[in-house]
Amino acid sequence: MARYRGPKSKIARRFKEPIFGPSKALDKKKYGPGQHGRNRRRKASEYSIQLNEKQKAKYIYGLLERQFRNTFVRAAAKKGVTGTVFLQMLEARLDNTVFRMGFAPTRRAARQLVNHKHVMVNGVVTNIPSMILSPGDKITIREKSQNLELVQRSLGRSSRFSWLDVAGNRMEGTFLNFPDREDIPENINEQLIVELYSK
């Protein structure tokens, strides 16, 4: 259940990217948060750059440190390029997939939908947002939850992703396969995260 509950605009301003979605605060104040945000001009060290990239990825996917690191350890044990496998595992999380399918406006909202048992995987009610999906898994919004205002408002915003097949009118979709790196739209340099954890 642990998740970041602090201010979102400060985090977006810190990374100078709308990592939680469109941000009016970031549009108005394109400098870092705090009283020294305008004037901070320190040269970033290699470690600082790597740490920032890791922190940004954590905030984007809504994970805290232990869960994030455990996912990385599991990715490192698999065959393939560690950074790519790591991002594929983050994309295959149930809460992220519910968000990508357009059933929730944000990852936070998707996590809440899963936690409150509004989502089924292969016909079974599931309340584990961190569940890693397998190719062929079917994700469905429960029939009694399909009239939720949150879900109804989100349906019009759904984007199409090559690794997902969504039947919006029935509020269900299929996780077809793990995405290729070039298909993942997040602005993350995963190699920096691999270098940081490899120290």
Question: How would you summarize the topology of this molecule?
Answer:
Layout: H1 8-15, H2 24-28, H3 46-61, H4 65-76, H5 82-91, H6 94-100, H7 107-115, E1 119-121, E2 124-125, E3 137-141, H8 149-155, E4 164-167, E5 172-175, H9 190-197
Antiparallel strand pairs: 1-2, 1-3, 3-5, 4-5
Helix pairs in contact: 3-9, 4-5, 5-9, 6-7
Model description:
This protein has 199 residues and is an alpha+beta fold. The chain has 9 helices and 5 strands, in the order αααααααβββαββα. The chain folds into 2 domains: 8-89 and 186-197, Ribosomal Protein S4 Delta 41, Chain A, domain 1 (Orthogonal Bundle), CATH 1.10.1050; 93-177, RNA-binding S4 domain (Structural Genomics Hypothetical 15.5 Kd Protein In mrcA-pckA Intergenic Region, Chain A, Roll). Helices cover 41% and strands 9% of the residues. A hairpin with a 2-residue loop joins strand 1 and strand 2. The longest helix is centred in the N-terminal third of the chain and has 16 residues, at 46-61. The two termini are 29 Å apart. The mean pLDDT is 85.
Distinctive features:
199 residues, alpha+beta, Ribosomal Protein S4 Delta 41, Chain A, domain 1, Structural Genomics Hypothetical 15.5 Kd Protein In mrcA-pckA Intergenic Region, Chain A, 2 domains, five-stranded antiparallel beta sheet, 5 strands
The count of DSSP E runs of length 2 or more, i.e. the number of strands, is 5
Q: What is the first-to-last residue Cα distance?
A: 29 Å
Radius of gyration: 18 Å
Which structural class do the helices and strands define?
alpha+beta
